[in-house]
Amino acid sequence: MSLVVRQICGTFVGEVDAVNLADDHGDSEIVDIRDALLEHGVLVFHGQDLSSEEQVRFSQKFGPSEIHTVKQYLLPDFPEIIALASRGDKGTKPVANGGAYWHSDITYKARPPMGSILYALEVPPSGGDTLYCDMAGAYEALSDEMKDRINGLKAVHSYLPRFLASRKVDEGFQKEGFELSDAQKAELPEVVHPIVRTHPENGRKALFINEGFTVRVEGMDEAEGKALLEELAAHATQGRFVYAHQWSVGDVVFWDNRVTMHKATEYDRQYPRRMHRTTVQGDVPL
Fold first, then answer.
1. Which residue out of 103, 273, 274, 276 is catalytically annotated?
2. Active-site annotation holds for 25
3. CA triplet 40, 253, 286: central angle to 5 degrees?
């Protein structure tokens, strides 16, 4: 396979032509796709037609599946797939407020994912886009003074505050909410990660904080830490580092979770939005 990739945003994002993700790709083809992901941070594939089995198979070519703690969102027959569906999907709980804030996936775990693969099945006529942010480019554009300030700092990440906040929003759109079980909460202790992460495959440095799950800077006064996180987030989410993906049915976006953030935009909730995401296990951030 000769992979054709066009960069479609200023600092990152590659659009891939003529690749059918439903095929059972061999090792050399997967190496080409991985290399493109490392180069661009985000890969966009159009016109895909994937069964759940095919999506899981493709995802697992890059590593074992990360199974989300909130089992209420997982497809019953394919727990590797989290259904981000405004009206639920095959019995899953609806996700009305799915990721409408800047975040990297599952940074509240000790080993956050290396990447995620999102497949569009139903999309509203407008809105419901996904914004992606280049955290490596954002780090490289920082002043030397700021780099010196944050290199070596660590931040605390947690899921529970975000779950509770999102649940309150979701309750405005669904008739019944739900609570996490004690066992689920036990899977979600606070974790600590470096604010500047070094990519394990290419050595590139990137900011590794996010609005969704980063709750404070370790060892820093609360107000000072909050101000620092807000300053870094404002820098990283400038337009020059952001790509907006307007979804069409059949689109697949594969992103490197180690060097990107993303968020969903609002849309008219009278229209359904249904996406399937698989997530690839990662390593301990360093």
1. 103
2. no
3. 55
